[in-house]
Structure formats: structure tokens, C-alpha cells
Amino acid sequence: MDGTVNSEPAPGRRLTGLDGVRGLAALYVVAYHVTLRAFPGYPDAAAPFWVGWFSYGRFAVLVFIVLSGFSLALAPARDGWRLDGIWDYARRRARRILPAYWAALAFSLAVAWLVVPQPRSGVPDLMSVLVNGALAQNIVSAPSPNTAFWSIAVEVQLYVALPVLLLMIRRRGAAAMVAAVTLIVAALGIFGPDVARLDTFVNQSPPELAALFALGVASAGVVVAGARRSLPWPWLALAAAVPVLATIVWEGTGWAFDHLFWLDLALAPAIACLLIGIAGGRPAPLLRLLDSRPIRGLGDSSYSLYLTHAPIIAIVYELFVAKWMGPGVAAFFVSLAIVLPLTIAFARAFASVFEHGYFQRRRPARGSAPALARPVPRGEVVA
């Protein structure tokens, strides 16, 4: 297998490399949260220059959001930008997201109540349970049992918006849809800081993620239309990313944290071009890496890794690392050496039950003959 894709993916098949992208992004988020524990107060706290390369967990979330829009829109793009029924779509999304999420919520609450709460959050209360259980934690403030959960709420809310985005494409086209969403988002970014409640919303529930999701949806149309073969998409991705990354290096991490809204928007085209390139089998060396067995395995449990890593990091750091050493480089590497294998192993076990086990088995349609229940196959396109 050379890692390339020579034809349009058949409906229901997973494009080579997307699992690997998810897995590496989730792994980066784990390293990011270890960095926050080992260097509290960063970037204001003194730290070696290389710490900056582990401090942009937000950018991994951008990859998740664009990739979600991209994956979810592949099937509709093949069918005139139509879903195969709103109810079926909602049911599939709920079955894919909610069992693992609610199980991770229970795990996170247990750790926060019985062992150690999340840093700078406080012990979760009844409001925390209700808000997180309803996936409203990015809108309603409450002590968080898991600092990674905010983006899950945003992503689920974007799933609700997908039918509207598809309708906009059918009426006005993909480019117009992306432009309309981006203009609304940019307006919020420009005027939000001058309106107290709007500024709070922009900080808690980054609206620019809607523009990234919309761009991911439109990118699926590029792949389905076959335009992915006509342009050097990996080079376009590099050309789009280099100016943004160079600006971050030049201005510094502190400046970047103060301008995440615009940096998120600026990085969106690079992520979209990279996904289109991967869908076209380029660059081949990257495809071989993403399709290697360890990276594929990591991607197969990436959702569980994202959901469960934060409580494990809190346990490892507070109960073990912090008792033997203070914050700093040693604490970072010791924590990373313990956390990475532990969170990956836990995520695989967790995923085997809540992502690939009973909760994800297909149920026969009403009136049909019963079929042997089976886990969701690797070949399905699952955001």
C-alpha cells in the first residue's frame, strides 16, 4: 500500500489518513495540558523557548473542527448537498458522540469529587452536572469537571447547524455559504470586545470555530468534485500556514494568546488545504505516516483520548509529580513520560466499550429482519 488514493472514496469509506490526523491532534492536546501543569502561568511564567511549541492546544481543536465539517459533509456533497433525513442524521450523531461523552463526564466527576479537581476550576457542583450533561458548558458558567469538554459542546452545536449550512450551499453555493458565515463571525470579533456580554460569549464559545466548520464542509465539495487533483494542495497548505506561524514566532506566545480569534481564522485555509491534499493522497510520505499502524490505532481511540486525558493528568501531576518536584522542565518530562502511555492505554480500553462496543452497534430498522449486531466498522466516515 503506497498511501495514495487513486479514485474518489466510495460512500461510507473512510479516507486514508484522517484517523491519523485526529490521533496526532488529540496527542498534541495531551502534551498541551501537561505543559499547563508543568509551567503554570505560561507565557507569563519563565520557561524555555521550546515550551511554546507545546502551548497551542487551541490549534489542535481547529483541526478537529475543520475535520468534522469535512467528514460530515462528504456524503451530502455526493448527494447534492442533502442529508439522508434529519432524524437519521441526528440519531447517528447522538449515538456516535453521547455514550462516550456521558461516560467520560461520569469519570471526570468521580475524579474531581473523590481524587482531585481540575486546576483553576474548583470542585464541580450540581450546576456542573446539569450544564455539562446538557452540553451547554460553553454558554453557562460552572466549575468544570474536565477542561477539555468546552470544545465538545461547541462541536455538537455545530452539528445542529450543519443542515442550515447545507441548505445555504444548495441555495447560494459553497463559496457564498463560507463567506456569509465568516462575515458574521468577523463582525462578532470586531464588535464583541465593545459589548460586555458579547465579549464573554466570544471568549467562552469562540464563534470563529463556526467559520472553520463551514470551511471544512465546503472542502468536502472540492474533494467530491475531483478538483483536488488539479492543484498542489499540500504546497498551498504550507504557503497558507507559514506566514501565520512566522508571525507567531516573531510576535511571541503572549501576543498570540491575545489574538487567538484572528489567528484561528488565519489558519483555517491551511488546515482545509491540508485535508484536501490528504484526501488526494498527497504528500505520500505524510500519508504513509498517518496510515501506519500505531498512528491509525491512536486515531481509532482519539475521541476517547480527548475526553478522558484531563482527569488522568490531574491525578498524575497532583498526586505524584508535584509531591517530588516543583514546576519546570523536569516536571514536564516526568509527567509526559507517565501521562502519554497511561492516557493512550486508558483511551483504548474506554473506546473499546463506549466507541466501538455495545453503544455503537447498529440496530436494524423497524420492520426489518434482525441482523447480527456489530461495532461501527473502520471504513465508515465518522467525524
Give a concise summary.
The protein has 383 residues and is mainly α. It has one domain (18-360). Helices cover 67% and strands 0% of the residues.
> What is the alpha-carbon Rg in Å?
21 Å
Average of pLDDT: 87
Beta-strand portion reads: under 5%
Beta strand count: 0
Shape: globular
What structural category do the secondary elements indicate? mainly alpha
Give the termini separation.
24 Å
Order of helices and strands: HHHHHHHHHHHHHHH
> Low-confidence parts, pLDDT < 50 over ≥5 residues?
1-12, 364-383
Query: How much helix is in the residues?
Result: 55-70%
Supply the number of helical segments: 15
For the report, how would you describe the main beta sheet?
A: none
Number of domain units: 1
Overview of this protein structure:
The chain is mostly helical and 383 residues long. Helices cover 67% and strands 0% of the residues. It has helices spanning 18-38, 57-78, 86-114, 126-133, 149-172, 174-191, 196-204, 208-225, 233-251, 253-258, 260-279, 284-290, 293-300, 302-324, 329-354. α2 packs across α8 and α2 (57-78) crosses α11 (260-279). It is globular.
